[in-house]
């Protein structure tokens, strides 16, 4: 019952707010099943772009296409069936349990008044197991640590069975083991993945292609080994780096050279 | 986990409500032994005898109205808290009850529409008043896209004061003492005027409203995920919120038209219910409804027996319990801003 991987095309998307232009006409594509990373310095527009893709923001120019159809024309529920979001964090939930929060992911597939059946319960249990959250399914969501919450939110997105998974820094609260596990999981899933990432080495290891944003524009795009060069990183981030090759994966491996 | 407790909790509360009802029928200026209360109730209405008249004609409408209003206010409070994502919301504190009072008083005193609409003119005006107040508070509190606890409470209190003052003003200026109930009734609430022929509408509003809201438990839960979260999970938050505002105003309006503005039931009961069965609305709403019925039944019992033969407005009793409770929650929520923010 999982949706087919979505083909994503972002065409000349602009976003302005209060006279500031946060995105200056971004073009981005993700083929079905591809894992695409968006990297860039703070304030470069990564999260804004992601929010335009999943519909929290309405682009002031350009459009977002899901399988060739304009996403702005989709109803809220149709969109939620195709695009699931893992936000950086979630606000207070009045004491809903982790299991209840994860089960929310079934909502786009249900009528308002419909209750979850045994099928749904099984999906929720599986997703909790997958992200290593089964042990705290009955705890209150807001009592969890940041990393545990993040895993629960990944489970919620899995339960949503989307064609496109949009993740906003899905690893920023996670310890290294879960960073690797969650990113490996996203990559292995039969979905198109769009990830905003801070850690360039993780981006290089887990993404098929990268877009580097700088001040609301695409500074470079392509496979990690072509994009993550010492010159580009110096230009975009203003830092000195040495880019080598990861001994096992062959992906670019970046080490930072201390300033001065 | 806690949700699995819900059936047991519902049974327990139903038993408590039955006990409260018996006490409500037994106590008063004439004390009737509980066994005789039960006999009288089981005999049915219309039998001869002094007890039968007291139980059936005097006390039972009041006991029933108290249960209905308590349940409805608790349900409305639960839902308002989800709508504004703030556990300090309550029909009274957000001005909805005062809005309903103002609407009801306007129609009664000014006679506007009363002739055309007959019996439902007053509840209809109360519904309009409560919705107007909620919309005003929501708009005032939300300016700038975010809603802080401070702004919500201030907007609610300000709107409530203005509407209560208007209500009092109209009542004082009006020279029709026989056609209106007192300022105290409309601003603090009272169940003393309960009559059999006025019970149907509140009961229908309660059952219909609560039933619909329980059916909408899933999207109500989604509201707890926040505006953006709810939308990414497929809920058209703007439309849903508007629909639930209307439904909640309807329940509040109809109840306030018959009970006046009773505060704090919708604040305390949902909070207590969440602690027992969790925040999922499918279990929470029935438990809150029964809990509200029990709470207001007890409060009314206290209101009419504590200072007998004087009667205390029931809203004074709920405020004496609810005010400190509110302060306690305010302290807690400012310490863990996650709940309030």
Tell me briefly what this model is:
Chain A has 260 residues and is an alpha/beta fold. Chain A has nine helices and twelve strands. Chain B has one domain: ABC transporter involved in vitamin B12 uptake, BtuC, CATH 1.10.3470.10.
CATH H-level superfamily title of chain A: P-loop containing nucleotide triphosphate hydrolases
Shape of chain B: globular
By secondary-structure content and strand pairing, the structural class of chain B works out as: mainly alpha
Please summarize the sheet with the most strands of chain B.
none
What structural class results from the helix and strand content of chain A? Answer: alpha/beta
Share of helical residues of chain A: 25-40%
Q: Return the CATH class of chain A.
A: Alpha Beta
Main β-sheet, spatial strand arrangement of chain A: 6-7-8-3-9-10
The succession of helices and strands of chain B, N to C, reads HHHHHHHHHHHHHHHH
Number of strands of chain A: 12
Q: Please, how many domains of chain A?
A: 1
Number of domains of chain B: 1
Number of helices of chain B: 16
Distance, first to last CA of chain A: 56 Å
Low-confidence parts of chain B: 337-341
